[in-house]
Design goal:
two-stranded parallel sheet; 5 strands; 51% helix
Length: 146
């Protein structure tokens, strides 16, 4: 989720420097420590080859007549939501995020090399997660269409 081992190590250093700041509020200190913990887990995974624990997410699809809804417990990147809506078997599909929990951001594969807050700070999933969400949401929509 951090691109590569070197990127993860750079982030670990950034979080360590942030945590050394005496002017850090309790809230910022909490989030910096959480992000540092996650990046250190990723570094360990890179170095040992042992994968991180899977992130579980409940997806749902339902319909009211010709109107469909599909849900995911995440901040889904617009490109993923648009793909699902465009490939939906329904003329009108709504993609709802933050449902049944929150697993953070689910970026597109293309977003990972670009980095940024969504990928480096608020993401808990590998690059393949967006495709997995898309595929499973479309399968659920097919089920409720039948």
């Amino acid at each position: 989720m951090y691109g590569d081992l070197e990127s993860a190590k750079q982030l670990d250093g950034e979080f360590a420097r942030e945590l050394e700041s005496r002017n850090l509020s309790d809230g910022r200190r909490h989030w910096a420590a959480l992000r540092q913990s996650r990046v250190r887990e990723a570094i360990s995974s890179y170095e040992t080859g042992v994968p991180l624990d899977p992130v579980e997410a409940e997806l749902q699809a339902w319909r009211i007549g010709d109107l469909a809804f599909v849900t995911a417990p995440a901040e889904i990147f617009t490109e993923n939501g648009t793909l699902v809506k465009n490939q939906s078997p329904f003329d009108h599909t709504f993609f709802l995020g933050y449902t049944n929990g929150s697993i953070g951001y689910v970026p597109t594969v293309e977003a990972y090399p670009e980095g940024g807050y969504e990928v480096t700070h608020a993401c808990q999933v590998d690059p393949e997660a967006g495709g997995m969400v898309n595929e499973n949401c479309l399968a659920l929509l097919q089920q409720v269409k039948a």
